[in-house]
Amino acid sequence: MARVVVEVMPKAEILDPQGQAIVGALPRLGFAGIGDVRQGKRFELEVDESVSDAELEQIAEGLLANTVIEEWKVVRLP
Protein backbone atom coordinates (compact mmCIF):
# COMPACT_ATOMS: atom_id res chain seq x y z
CA MET A 1 0.00 0.00 0.00
CA ALA A 2 1.16 3.51 -0.79
CA ARG A 3 0.28 6.68 1.06
CA VAL A 4 -1.12 9.66 -0.81
CA VAL A 5 -1.87 13.11 0.57
CA VAL A 6 -4.47 15.41 -0.95
CA GLU A 7 -4.03 19.02 0.16
CA VAL A 8 -7.06 21.30 -0.28
CA MET A 9 -6.84 25.08 0.20
CA PRO A 10 -9.20 27.98 -0.44
CA LYS A 11 -8.43 29.78 -3.69
CA ALA A 12 -6.46 33.01 -3.16
CA GLU A 13 -9.43 35.20 -4.09
CA ILE A 14 -11.77 33.49 -1.61
CA LEU A 15 -12.19 34.96 1.88
CA ASP A 16 -11.00 32.55 4.58
CA PRO A 17 -12.89 33.41 7.79
CA GLN A 18 -11.24 30.61 9.78
CA GLY A 19 -7.78 31.79 8.74
CA GLN A 20 -8.71 35.38 9.63
CA ALA A 21 -9.94 34.27 13.07
CA ILE A 22 -6.63 32.50 13.68
CA VAL A 23 -4.51 35.45 12.53
CA GLY A 24 -6.58 37.72 14.80
CA ALA A 25 -6.08 35.44 17.81
CA LEU A 26 -2.32 35.03 17.47
CA PRO A 27 -1.33 38.49 18.85
CA ARG A 28 -3.71 38.01 21.79
CA LEU A 29 -1.88 34.76 22.54
CA GLY A 30 1.50 36.48 22.45
CA PHE A 31 2.60 35.56 18.93
CA ALA A 32 3.85 38.42 16.75
CA GLY A 33 4.99 38.63 13.17
CA ILE A 34 2.29 36.49 11.52
CA GLY A 35 0.80 38.42 8.60
CA ASP A 36 -1.74 35.96 7.20
CA VAL A 37 -3.17 32.50 7.78
CA ARG A 38 -5.02 30.31 5.29
CA GLN A 39 -6.70 27.21 6.67
CA GLY A 40 -7.13 24.16 4.49
CA LYS A 41 -7.72 20.45 4.68
CA ARG A 42 -5.38 17.46 4.41
CA PHE A 43 -6.54 14.00 3.45
CA GLU A 44 -4.31 10.94 3.74
CA LEU A 45 -5.26 7.96 1.60
CA GLU A 46 -3.77 4.48 1.59
CA VAL A 47 -3.96 3.17 -1.95
CA ASP A 48 -2.63 0.14 -3.71
CA GLU A 49 -0.30 0.50 -6.66
CA SER A 50 -3.10 -0.03 -9.18
CA VAL A 51 -4.67 3.37 -8.38
CA SER A 52 -3.56 5.80 -11.08
CA ASP A 53 -2.78 9.48 -10.76
CA ALA A 54 -5.81 10.18 -12.95
CA GLU A 55 -8.05 8.29 -10.51
CA LEU A 56 -6.57 10.21 -7.58
CA GLU A 57 -7.28 13.46 -9.40
CA GLN A 58 -10.89 12.38 -9.96
CA ILE A 59 -11.23 11.58 -6.25
CA ALA A 60 -9.76 14.93 -5.22
CA GLU A 61 -11.81 16.96 -7.68
CA GLY A 62 -15.05 15.01 -7.37
CA LEU A 63 -15.19 14.30 -3.65
CA LEU A 64 -12.57 16.01 -1.50
CA ALA A 65 -12.52 19.57 -2.87
CA ASN A 66 -15.15 22.11 -3.81
CA THR A 67 -13.48 23.22 -7.03
CA VAL A 68 -15.50 26.43 -7.20
CA ILE A 69 -13.71 27.84 -4.14
CA GLU A 70 -10.82 25.44 -3.45
CA GLU A 71 -7.59 24.33 -5.07
CA TRP A 72 -6.12 20.90 -4.49
CA LYS A 73 -2.99 18.91 -5.13
CA VAL A 74 -2.14 15.24 -4.85
CA VAL A 75 1.20 14.19 -3.40
CA ARG A 76 2.39 10.60 -3.40
CA LEU A 77 4.58 10.02 -0.36
CA PRO A 78 7.79 8.01 -0.69
From TrEMBL:
Q: Which UniProt keywords apply?
A: ATP-binding, Cytoplasm, Ligase, Nucleotide-binding, Purine biosynthesis
- Give the EC number: 6.3.5.3
Origin organism is: Nocardia bhagyanarayanae
Which GO CC terms are listed, alphabetically? cytoplasm
Q: Which InterPro entries does the entry mention?
A: PurS (IPR003850), PurS-like_sf (IPR036604)
| Record family assignment | Belongs to the PurS family.
GO MF, any single term: phosphoribosylformylglycinamidine synthase activity
**What gene, per UniProt, encodes this protein?**
purS
Q: What is this protein called?
A: Phosphoribosylformylglycinamidine synthase subunit PurS
